[in-house]
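A sample follows:
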Amino acid sequence: MIKFYRKIILFLKGVLMGIADLIPGISGGTIALITNIYDELIFSINSISIRSFINLKKKGVRFFWNEINGKFLFPVFFGIIFSIFFFSKIISWLLINEPISLWSFFFAITISSFYYFYKKIGDIKFPHFLLIFIGAIFSFFFTIFINLNISPNYFYIFISGFIAITAMILPGISGSYLLLILGVYPLIIKSLNDLQSFIFKLNSEIFLNSFNILLIFFLGAIVGLKIMSKYISLILYKYPKKTLSFLLGLMIGSVHKLWPWQNKIDSSNLFLFKNKTIVFPNKYDGPPELIKAFIFMGVGSILFFTLSRLKKIK
């Protein structure tokens, strides 16, 4: 019963990671970090190698499953894939119709997570402050000034997958926002939605085009995930507090992207997230919906502290 309960919790954390990866401004890595599965996730991914598959053939499925920590990876990745596939249309709708509620929810989760970092780092000394500052400056300027406009082909989509997954496993840098910068976010979201349409409407023409795009994208993501997890796990192992300090800086520098009240939003265009101006609620171009915002901030904070207390069950 306890093992089943843990799998459900891991699945739900994976679902939250997948939802976060769909939204420009928040990283699935952030969710993994604040829900206490980040270290295990990175080290488990890094444990997968060619040797693992050789052992699968020589020593069997059970040895392979234990070697890659399958009892952890499977529910987490199943949750991520489930939410990315089934929530893409819902997130698209929320970004257009309920932006304040959505951003309030994730803004509260991110702000609440700073407490987790404080507890995890412990005694914060000058090198930690310096790394927090460097991470914040890098993340802030990166999310403001980087902008590309390239017509995507299959190779570009592969590279985009590689870059996006790198960001998605780094707290503070949004993979979806990077896809926006790279100019492929609308294409990936549309392909996910088309794939859903195929399942429910069986339109083969839509399926083939979208499947090819998603296949190339996910191949790039798999390669990026394997390569980057190796280096991240290495620095996490050697310099845990300094790494967490830098990751905290990345989150602080990008938190402005989650502020619920930002003007210059074209509500008719789902994918226009750039050139927004942060304002106080009374200066917002539209109903500020303060009560709704505070409710969702409260829900986000409660969810964070609930998930962050769910430690590994022995």
In short: The radius of gyration is 20 Å.
